[in-house]
TrEMBL record:
This enzyme's EC code(s): 5.3.1.28
UniProt-recorded name of the protein: Phosphoheptose isomerase
Residues given in the record as Zn(2+) binding sites: H52, E56, Q163, H171
Pathway membership: Carbohydrate biosynthesis; D-glycero-D-manno-heptose 7-phosphate biosynthesis; D-glycero-alpha-D-manno-heptose 7-phosphate and D-glycero-beta-D-manno-heptose 7-phosphate from sedoheptulose 7-phosphate: step 1/1
Family matches, as PANTHER family: DNAA INITIATOR-ASSOCIATING PROTEIN DIAA, SEDOHEPTULOSE 7-PHOSPHATE ISOMERASE / DNAA INITIATOR-ASSOCIATING FACTOR FOR REPLICATION INITIATION
Role of this protein: Catalyzes the isomerization of sedoheptulose 7-phosphate in D-glycero-D-manno-heptose 7-phosphate.
Keyword annotations of the record: Carbohydrate metabolism, Cytoplasm, Isomerase, Metal-binding, Zinc
Cofactor note: Binds 1 zinc ion per subunit.
Gene transcribed to yield this protein: gmhA
Amino acid sequence: MDGLRAHRALFDRLDALGPDIARAATLMSDTLRAGRKLMLMGNGGSAADCQHLAAEFTGRFSRERAPLAAVALTTDSSALTCIGNDYGFDQVFSRQVAGLGAPGDCVIGISTSGNSPNVLRGLAQARQLGMTTVGLSGRDGGAMRELCDLCLVVPHTDTARIQEAHIFIGHTWCALVEQALLAP
Ligand SMILES: O=C(CO)[C@@H](O)[C@H](O)[C@H](O)[C@H](O)COP(=O)(O)O
Ligand SMILES: [Zn+2]
């Protein structure tokens, strides 16, 4: 099966991202330890990743622990339609970042192209307000690279493969954050 072989090859190549995956997890656990929160944003399949990962933090991933502060900016249909309708779709995340965020929060942008305008604006807003920024991207990383303290670029051009790698990285973050926060 060529597809499966190519898939395995991609996941083998993710090894190279290991140090940055760990750095991003440390940034997130430091954020949570300091009483700040994680905010996630993305479109389409990446929006689903955002709410999936936020739920791992507020609910549980694999270990029993207190809930962790994470919010997906992709789930409030009233906010998304109000901001989209009144200000433009480009601002659906940046206005939520400005309204809900505080300095020291960590904003995570997920975009396979790294070029979705609403994600870029959300990251720029986060930086302007003193939040840290983490990106999950693909292809050449896109414009997102410049707006992130840490941007993990999955070395592939196919959106579906990039998304599969993103959720793998997201689950790895959940495991690492739990480990860091539960460590004695
Ligand atoms: O899931 C898929 C395709 O697999 C789509 O919903 C996809 O997420 C959407 O086309 C997004 O709008 C793509 O945006 P991005 O990943 O480039 O930021
Ligand atoms: Zn999960």
